[in-house]
Design goal:
CATH topology of one domain: 434 Repressor (Amino-terminal Domain)
CATH class of one domain: Mainly Alpha
Number of strands: 2
Helix content: 40-55%
Largest sheet: 2 strands, antiparallel
Distance between the termini: 15 Å
């Protein structure tokens, strides 16, 4: 497993080049960047680690493009982040019929 976002993104793109039945150019920096809605320069900065915190939109689009999860790109393991969603009804004395939605994430200690 690659230890950071840069390594995982680069490794996944290179792996796609090796495995792909499509033309190798389908997985070029330029082609992938166009499909995820950014520039090749931005993707290159991510792959080289010069951009430490890529935008959530780019990470989401990369995960979708590579057929993996956002969590894998961020943390290297799909099961490291547990999210629990709770819906808490508000009492009648407060705003009637309103619901508070809370997402709790498991803390990862590295």
């Amino acid at each position: 497993m690659n230890g950071n976002i840069a390594g995982r993104v680069k490794a996944m793109r290179k792996e796609k080049i090796m495995e792909s039945k499509q033309e190798k150019s389908y997985w070029s920096l330029q082609s992938v960047a166009e499909r995820i809605g950014t520039k090749a320069q931005v993707l290159s900065l991510i792959e080289t680690g010069k951009t430490k915190k890529p935008s959530a939109v780019i990470l989401h689009n990369l995960a979708k493009e590579f057929g993996t999860s956002y969590e894998y790109l961020l943390f290297g393991k799909e099961d490291e982040v547990d999210v629990i969603s709770l819906e808490i009804p508000i009492s009648r004395s407060m705003l009637s019929g309103s619901v508070i939605k809370v997402n709790l994430k498991k803390t990862i200690n590295a």
